[in-house]
Amino acid sequence: MPLVTYFDHIANSSSSKPVKLSPFANMPLYVPKSINLSLNEEQLKAVFRKHDVNGDGCLSKDELMKAFRELGSRNPSWRVRRSLHHADGNGDGTISLDELDELVKYVAKQGYGIN
Ligand SMILES: [Ca+2]
Ligand SMILES: [Ca+2]
């Protein structure tokens, strides 16, 4: 069908139907699965280590992102940028195990750790 008709079609069909809300619409944005927000630095470290999925001893941005997601961060990509800024001492864009201490200290300060 011609494009204009097509858009009309979309407009009509969306106005004639009630908007269907996702069953998840009323849920909180993030529900922590297993994290009780009282991790100590060792436990935080373990979470990050666990996310080194390719086992190269470094946490890439992707891996960090998943770790922060697990920790309940609402904005993991922003958190990753901040942590790299704080803890990526050699500036290679990943967190090595050496740099992990610094990262964990930073993360703990942000309220993911220790009560
Ligand atoms: Ca890795
Ligand atoms: Ca680094």
UniProtKB/TrEMBL annotation:
Gene3D superfamilies: EF-hand. The keyword Calcium applies. PROSITE patterns: EF_HAND_1, EF_HAND_2. Keywords: Calcium. GO terms for molecular function: calcium ion binding. InterPro entries: EF-hand-dom_pair (IPR011992), EF_Hand_1_Ca_BS (IPR018247), EF_hand_dom (IPR002048). This is EF-hand domain-containing protein. It comes from Gossypium raimondii.
